[in-house]
Specification:
The chain is mostly beta strands. The chain has four domains: 117 residues, Immunoglobulins (Immunoglobulin-like), CATH 2.60.40; 90 residues, Immunoglobulin-like (Sandwich); 89 residues, Immunoglobulins (Immunoglobulin-like, Sandwich), CATH 2.60.40.10; 48 residues. It contains two helices and 32 strands. The strands form nine sheets. Strands 2, 4, 5, 10, 11 and 12 form a six-stranded mixed beta sheet that branches. The chain has a five-stranded mixed beta sheet with strand order 14-21-23-26-25, with no helix packed on it. The protein has a four-stranded antiparallel beta sheet with strand order 1-3-9-8, with no helix packed on it. The longest helix is centred in the last third of the chain and has 48 residues.
Length: 450
């Protein structure tokens, strides 16, 4: 009976102690970056001694009053405790951890000792986020050159921290402006990817990007490449679609290869004699010096080779006969050819004659008609005033019929007048002067001059 009474008294005492201790301010949750400073505080609604106060982490005591316990792993670090009364009625208790570590994460509470009974505040969560080491990400080197068809392994390693980092593997080309292609995206490390190398991967660069949710401003990259992919030549032959007979035909063997092409070779089916074509010093350009109608359907083949391998490409040429403008030349006899040539010459001569006549007509219009027309127009528009001379002569010729007794003679009379003014204010005098002349006309039966 006595035992039950003691237990009852202890419980009542404990309840009274707990009710007597009241925390007006409990520690608050914190999320901080590793290496920064964090402060945890609590306030009791009474003044207590320093030694009765303590801080707990995950229910383990790490301080006693102002002292740091050795078991807390905070003893030799930059940690400060602060105890001060507030207005003489409450006690302020603070734990400051500078350069906080990821291992400092946990639940923190402050406690007060009352006669061997520990009264705790509400617990607060301290979350310490880690940042990746500056050396990350790390991209494993690629062994260049890589032959076409071989597998390429890409491996990118990041830091293992909390919260987990994010890695993104992307591909882009150095000489082509295209959008970046994202190959992989994950939150685990390392990130690995493999591809089969081909010609389109030559000069490709792969990047590995690291980000962390702990700090959005942190973006780091490492890269693979550019890849040096070796591949056999890709060939095309540049040439005219059709060639006129009697002309020169040029063929260019265009290649794309890595490493570059070392030599070219040209072949013909059916074969051509060596004096009919010419190849430049490099061997990439070939000329057929004079194409004939018999070369229609000739197969021209170019073979290019580099250290990886050799590739061939061919084209078939089409020849147009310059005589009739068709590929298939109809055979005609000599008479028909001559007639065609003569008709062509006649048509050309007629065209030339018409052209000459047209030019002459234009010359006549511009040289004769236009000046005359211009002269007439100008003469109408301008009125020239001719001054009256002081002295002028007016010839008057007339013929007089012969007299009956002068059968063999004809009288020709010439008269003229002279006007000579004597004074400016007096009208001019007009004097008619007449002279008769007889012209002998033997046996004339006509009354006119011969």
């Amino acid at each position: 009976m006595r035992m039950y009474f003691l237990r009852y008294a202890f419980i009542v005492n404990l309840i009274s102690i707990i009710k007597a201790v009241e925390f007006s301010h409990n520690p608050q949750d914190h999320v901080v970056i590793e290496g920064t400073t964090v402060k945890l505080t609590c306030v009791l609604e009474e003044v207590v001694s320093d030694r009765s106060l303590s801080w707990l982490r995950n229910r383990q005591k790490i301080t006693e009053g102002r002292n740091i316990l050795e078991s807390s792993q905070l003893l030799y670090r930059d940690v400060i405790t602060n105890i001060s009364p507030l207005s003489g009625k409450s006690t302020f208790y603070e734990l400051e951890i500078r350069s906080v570590l990821y291992s400092d994460s946990g639940k923190y509470a402050c406690a007060v000792d009352r006669n061997g009974i520990e009264v705790k505040s509400e617990a607060a969560d301290l979350t310490v986020n880690q940042l990746p080491d500056p050396i990350y990400p790390i991209c494993d080197p690629i062994g260049n050159p890589i032959s076409e068809g071989n597998r390429v392994k890409l491996k990118c390693t990041g830091d293992i921290i909390d919260p987990p980092i994010k890695l993104r593997l992307s591909k882009y080309m150095t000489d082509i402006k295209t959008d970046t292609e994202v190959l992989l995206y994950q939150q685990t490390t390392p990130i690995m990817h493999s591809i089969i190398a081909n010609a389109s991967d030559n000069n490709a660069i792969f990047t590995c990007q690291l980000t962390t949710p702990a700090n959005q401003s942190i973006i780091r990259n490492c890269s693979f490449g550019p890849l040096n992919v070796w591949y056999k030549p890709n060939i095309t032959i540049q040439h005219a679609a059709t060639t006129l007979s009697g002309r020169e035909a040029i063929f260019i063997c265009q290649t794309n290869a890595n490493p570059p092409v070392t030599d070219f070779m040209w072949q013909f089916y059916p074969p051509l004699s060596i004096d009919r074509y010419d190849v430049d010093d490099i061997g990439q350009v070939m000329r057929i010096l004079r194409v004939t109608i018999d070369d229609n359907g000739l197969i021209v083949k170019c073979t290019a080779r580099n250290t990886v391998g050799r590739v061939a490409y061919h084209v078939t040429i089409k020849v147009i006969d310059t005589d009739n403008g068709s590929i298939n030349k109809p055979k005609t006899n000599a008479i028909e050819s001559t007639n065609n040539k003569q008709s062509k010459k006649k048509s050309i001569s007629l065209s030339v004659l018409l052209a000459v006549v047209s030019v002459l007509v234009l010359v006549i219009v511009f040289a004769i008609i236009i000046p005359v027309y211009y002269f007439c127009i100008c003469s109408k528009k301008e009125e020239n005033v001719v001054g009256q001379p002081d002295v002028y002569f007016e010839p008057q010729d007339r013929l007089t019929l012969p007299l009956p007794n002068k059968r063999h003679s004809v009288l020709w009379r010439r008269s003229f007048g002279a006007q000579v003014p004597t004074d400016r204010d007096v009208d001019a005098m007009y004097l008619e002067i007449q002279s008769d002349h007889y012209i002998f006309t033997p046996d004339s039966r006509c009354n006119t001059l011969p």
